[in-house]
Amino acid sequence: MLIFGKIYIILSLINYVISLPPKSPAFIRDEFDRKHFLVQDLPGMTTNIKSEDLPLMFAGQIELYSETNMGYFYWKFQDRKKLPENNKRTTFWLNGGPGCSSMDGALLESGPFRVNKDREIVYNKGSWHKLTDMVFVDQPAGTGFSYTDEYRHDLDQIAQDFLVFLKKYFEIFPEDLQNDIYLSGESYAGQYIPYIAQAILNFNKDQQNQQNNQKYNLKGLLIGNGWISPNEQSLSDAQFAINAKLVSPSDKVWPKLAAEIEECQKIVNQVDSTFNDGEIHDYEISSDVCERILTTILSSSRDPSKPNNEQCINMYDYTLRDTYPQCGSNWPNELAYVSPFLNSEQVVKNLNLNFVKKWVECSGRVGRNFNARKSLPAIHLLPELTKEMPVVLFHGNLDIICNYIGAEAMIKKLTWGGKRGFSEDIAADDWIYNNETVGYIKSERNLTFINVFNASHMVPYDKPEVSRALIDLITKNYDEKEGVNVNEIPNKKIITYPIGERKANLENPEDASKPSNENETENQDDNKQAGSSSNSRISRLIQFLVIAILIWGVYVIYVSYRYKSRPVSIIKARTTTTGKKKNVQWADQLRRFQEDDEEFQQQQNVKQSFLSKTIGKLTGNTPNPYSPVPYEEFELNEQESQSTPSADDFKIDSDDEIESKPLPPTPKDDENNV
Ligand SMILES: *[C@@H]1O[C@H](CO)[C@@H](O)[C@H](O)[C@H]1NC(C)=O
Ligand SMILES: *[C@@H]1O[C@H](CO)[C@@H](O)[C@H](O)[C@H]1NC(C)=O
Ligand SMILES: *[C@@H]1O[C@H](CO)[C@@H](O)[C@H](O)[C@H]1NC(C)=O
Fold first, then answer.
1. Over residues 79-84, mean pLDDT
2. What is the pLDDT of residue 27?
3. Three-state DSSP class for 479?
């Protein structure tokens, strides 16, 4: 007992020293807060994920307002061994809907995991957490694992709610206040993100906050297939369908479609003519006239002669087919695994839910309530936002519903940075990733448009590694080369690399391709980063040596007493360490913490998480402890889909429409598994 006590004290000291973040006296207290949020186990974590890929994870619900019983769920992932370029960054990710859970992002897109048929996690090689800490947030309240008694209706409300969330988030993770903050997301998050960004800028400008030195270092926005300018984008569905040969003038549906295009064009013209009057017009927020275009295209694509699951075009990826009238809402197939995964008892427990509720991908109730009738579409906010930070709009080019043609059309009309649209004489630059042309880029005055080739509505789902390089683009971690001039307009190649590969170039700057002027300043920045990272490498080395010596000391003491102390021997622990299955060993550590303090020594490379783990709860490792729940509820973007609640639906009470929408059937290949 005595020797145990000594070891405990020494190890606690070691841990205290290694996990102490610079200049954060509040650390100990905060650490005790965040321990409740540590994610310690997930199905498949020990068997399917290599230890070096397994991020440090925190998840749980944060109460925003007790009066309305409102709380947000978040899931945070941070790399344990950060690359030098992953330098003090936190990126929040939001999915759209309104009302669709950001667990789509975490488990199907930019997050570190995918869920397989066995409802176990497997690693996503393109996970963004290698370049930035990722925080997936379920919002507005009521979405996913977020809860509330009161539903939100408008964008300014959810922007204020997000500020409340941020305040509490930074109380738990105060060191993140020093980080560069990025907001990212998809689809209807094209509305959320600009509103939240604007609220953050206002927060930073607020005098009182300035006096209190309160500031969030918001550095940029990344919006994927964003829904930003509703009517313009709906109108573009027609052009997109024609270009993709989904419809043609010889089709029976053509006259109907042509009439709808004309009607929608009138509304778009009206929107354009009142764009700057500062008033909120219903027809600008959404127009069922314009939304009808997509409905018409999808229903005309119906082909009853085809097998059931091929009867309609998938509106999120026109190269795919789906059942009618789902037309994409059954997609992606892995969604059928995500839902039972998130509803399993084991996962719910490990995600630290205080308020347990059933997870559905998209909440009809949140969507119905959220009508955004008091807010101008987010396109109006972009000119102000681009004064302060880069705004990147990236579009997977196979998506119909938020297609790239509509995005280019709305940019063409937008005035920002003192000019309208991109200059006539800027070319589309080629985006190169790993020697392949993966898209094109137009960028001026802090607004960047990116067309991502062969990608759907969910770009990181189709192109995980390419999508991660979006972080390199927004943080300027790329090289530029002269390209081929098209029509005498100079075009460039913007070159991004698989993670870690450009670092090699920077370490031998003479080898790097001759940088342009612009590049020189970027490289200087990057070199500065590289320099500070080599400093931190040295200090890490010193830390490691100190720890190793201490551990050796402890080991010597322990071995000399081992027969007098507890039966669980450090030797045993070492056997596992030398075992081949490194991945298994990592999570075993967590479980053993409860019983076995020797595990302390294996934590030298895990900063900050240590105390929380020792106090964390014990979780069993029973195989398949979760019971599959049938897959339920709607598609992404019910707001935009063909059975969409439109402007009029919101006025007339049409709640039942969504509720009574047929549930998509479970995909066939899933059935064997249930
Ligand atoms: C672009 O953003 C930076 C801040 O990141 C700002 O200093 C600059 O003025 C902006 N440029 C324009 C043209 O607004
Ligand atoms: C990329 O291209 C360069 C030069 O063409 C070549 O040396 C390199 O091996 C290529 N890399 C990959 C990953 O294909
Ligand atoms: C990807 O897109 C490009 C350009 O649109 C095309 O040339 C290429 O064939 C596509 N590749 C695949 C694998 O579909």
1. 91
2. 44
3. strand
What is the CB < 6 Å shell around ligand 3?
Answer: 453-454
149, two tokens = 């008694």
Residue 536: name the closest of 101, 82, 93, 212 by CA.
Answer: 82
pLDDT at site 34? 86
Q: Which ligand is nearest to the CA of 431?
A: 3
Q: What are the beta bridge partners of residue 221?
A: 183, 391
- Give Cα 158 distance to the centre of its chain: 18
Give the contacts of 619 (CB within 8 A, at least 6 positions apart).
Answer: 40, 41, 346, 349, 350, 591
Contact 303, 253 (CB under 8 A): no
CA separation for the pair 378, 156 (Å, rounded): 11
Indicate if 655 belongs to the active site: no
CA of 224 to the centre of ligand 2 (A): 29
Using the Cα atoms of residue 342, residue 344, residue 347 and residue 351 in order, give the sign of their dihedral. Answer: positive
Atom of ligand 1 at shortest distance to CA of 418? 13
Catalytic residue among 101, 127, 184, 187: 187
What separation in Å is there between the alpha carbon of 421 and the centre of ligand 1?
16
Smallest-distance ligand from the CA of 434: 2
Rounded distance from Cα 434 to ligand 2 centre (Å):
8
Q: Which residues pair with 57 in a beta bridge?
A: 77
pTM of this prediction? 0.73
* pLDDT tens, position by position, 223-257: 999 999 999 999 999 999 999 999 999 999 999 99
Query: Going by DSSP bridges, is the β-strand pair 180-186/56-65 parallel, antiparallel, or unpaired?
Result: unpaired
Pick the catalytic residue: 399, 430, 472, 649?
Answer: 399
- How many whole angstroms separate alpha carbon 75 and alpha carbon 37? 9
